């Protein structure tokens, strides 16, 4: 449903004003007023529910699910013979994706907001003075707080001809409506790897990933990127490291809408990371997955003396230093660009706003977003999956930790019965001095459900001597915990 100019209240004064009504904005508003007589308003210029609901997390996982189900079936005798080598049914996959995104109709999200006591104002919100936000010709005032929750936008590098070629960004890839025959993917991060996975599932004949660096997912452990690269190659993806786009020529480019092929063929001039020519590619579509930038350039930060672009700096209470009425949560603050971490920050900020409004003490740990520092969990839904939390070995050493690394292939009864050709690996990063885990990485089928136990161990600083008594159920992939701990048994 296209946004309208409706407003749900004639009031111009609220306790809390939130600019951005994605899951992060929704959560901070809800937590700030829940169980009280305080008021809050959400301002949204696109769809209530935000990037995650319509263009990121939900549609991407819906696109990945059918291929993953078929791959799981092909991993076991008896099921393999039934499913064969067929790709998922495109129309059915698109229908499932559209059902998960409500076909970009935000009516149910608006209903939720109203039910939670939140007003909704459609339009672009901009700070126009302290505790004041302007939306069109309307000016809103905040008694307690203004929260910036505007998220981030896809970055398009300044490559000659690239922007003029109307390349796909993540929004096009997740809302794919026409399947190109040949695609080049620029980037080697999470969006690039997941998109390459579902594009292969959907039957794209040629997928070429151009990665400026020397590995995929460079912020994770090296073995994780290697295993995921192996999985993509087995699906037919051509990965070219040390290579990027030097130029794009697409004379028939046209903005045909989300997920539709944007014109005629594109000729891609390739260059090495050093800028040397590396040949050409002719493709039907270009997907740019080269990072995201905080959406902070037009929210009025300059009006209150802040930098009008880049991440909005905050402390652990998510408050902008020097502006006790102003908060920034989620991607826009540049701390962690993950929906679940943005929602975590929103819960902390909402509690802080509520406590300040009620004159309560803020010394408790619930009022500080400490998990942003060294306890961030993440899952990458490639094949195999990657699940990780906390520091990598490199990060831990850089932080001065006396590191012990414990690693093992995932070869347990649980993985053997999960699929015949199971391949995976797990690694723990241990602070030797404190005998606690500060990082964990798992790669393999079914590991996405292992990461929360690792997160609890990291956040809770559970001694490994204590973890020895956390017995994994048999036969599950969780048995890898026992194999890892056995390596330290003396």
From TrEMBL:
A single MF term (Gene Ontology): dihydrolipoyl dehydrogenase (NADH) activity
Pfam families according to UniProt: Pyr_redox_2 (PF07992), Pyr_redox_dim (PF02852)
Cofactor(s) essential for the protein: FAD
Family matches, as InterPro entries: Class-I_Pyr_Nuc-Dis_Oxidored, FAD/NAD-bd_sf, FAD/NAD-binding_dom, FAD/NAD-linked_Rdtase_dimer_sf, Pyr_nuc-diS_OxRdtase, Pyr_nucl-diS_OxRdtase_dimer
Residues that, per the record, bind NAD(+): 187-194, 291
Keywords: FAD, Flavoprotein, NAD, Nucleotide-binding
Family as reported in the entry's similarity comment: Belongs to the class-I pyridine nucleotide-disulfide oxidoreductase family.
Record text on cofactor binding: Binds 1 FAD per subunit.
UniProt binding sites for FAD: 61, 125, 150-152, 331
Span of domain FAD/NAD(P)-binding: 14-345
GO annotation (BP), single: 2-oxoglutarate metabolic process
Intrachain S-S bonds: 52-57
Name of the protein in question: Putative oxidoreductase
SUPFAM superfamilies (alphabetical): FAD/NAD(P)-binding domain, FAD/NAD-linked reductases, dimerisation (C-terminal) domain
Domain Pyridine nucleotide-disulphide oxidoreductase dimerisation: 376-481
């Amino acid at each position: 449903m296209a946004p309208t100019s409706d407003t749900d209240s004639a009031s111009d004064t609220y306790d809390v004003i939130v600019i951005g009504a994605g899951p992060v904005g929704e959560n901070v508003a809800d937590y700030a007023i829940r169980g009280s007589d305080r008021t809050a308003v959400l301002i949204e210029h696109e769809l209530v529910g935000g990037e995650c609901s319509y263009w990121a997390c939900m549609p991407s996982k819906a696109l990945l699910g059918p291929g993953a189900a078929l791959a799981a079936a092909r991993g076991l005798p008896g099921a393999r013979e039934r499913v064969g080598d067929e790709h998922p049914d495109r129309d059915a996959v698109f229908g499932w994706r559209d059902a998960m995104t409500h076909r970009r109709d935000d009516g149910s999200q608006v209903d939720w907001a109203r039910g939670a006591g939140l007003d909704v104002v459609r339009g672009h919100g901009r700070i126009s003075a302290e505790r004041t936000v302007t939306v069109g010709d309307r000016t809103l005032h905040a008694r307690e707080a203004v929260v910036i929750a505007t998220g981030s936008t896809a970055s398009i590098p300044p490559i000659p001809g690239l922007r003029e070629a109307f390349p796909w960004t993540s929004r096009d890839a997740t809302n794919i409506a026409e399947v190109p025959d040949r695609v080049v993917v620029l980037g080697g991060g999470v969006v690039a790897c997941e998109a390459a996975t579902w594009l292969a599932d959907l039957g794209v004949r040629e997928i070429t990933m151009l990665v400026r660096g020397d590995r995929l997912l460079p912020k994770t452990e090296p073995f994780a990127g290697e295993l995921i690269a192996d999985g993509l190659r087995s699906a037919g993806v051509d990965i070219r490291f040390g290579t990027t786009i030097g130029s794009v020529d697409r004379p028939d480019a046209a903005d045909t809408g989300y997920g539709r092929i944007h014109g005629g063929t594109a000729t891609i001039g390739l260059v090495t990371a050093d800028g040397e020519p590396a040949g050409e590619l002719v493709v039907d579509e270009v997907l740019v997955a080269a990072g995201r930038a905080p959406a902070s350039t037009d929210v009025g930060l300059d009006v209150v003396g802040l930098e009008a672009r880049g991440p909005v700096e905050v402390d652990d209470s998510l408050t902008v230093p020097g502006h006790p009425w102003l908060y920034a949560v989620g991607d826009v603050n540049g701390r962690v660009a993950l929906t679940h971490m943005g929602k975590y920050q929103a819960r902390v900020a909402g509690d802080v706003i509520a406590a300040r409004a009620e004159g309560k003490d803020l010394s408790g740990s619930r009022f500080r977003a400490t998990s942003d520092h060294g306890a961030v969990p993440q899952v990458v839904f490639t094949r195999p999956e990657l699940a990780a939390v906390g520091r990598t070995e490199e990060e831990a050493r850089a932080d001065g930790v006396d590191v012990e690394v414990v690693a093992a292939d995932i070869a347990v009864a649980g993985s053997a019965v999960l699929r015949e050709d199971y391949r995976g690996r797990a690694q723990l990063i241990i602070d030797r001095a404190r005998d606690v885990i500060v990082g964990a990485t798992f790669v393999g089928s079914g590991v996405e459900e292992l990461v929360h136990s690792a997160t609890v161990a990291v956040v809770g600083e559970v001694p490994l001597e204590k973890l020895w008594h956390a017995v994994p159920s048999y036969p599950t992939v969780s048995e890898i915990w026992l194999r890892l701990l056995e390596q330290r048994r003396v």
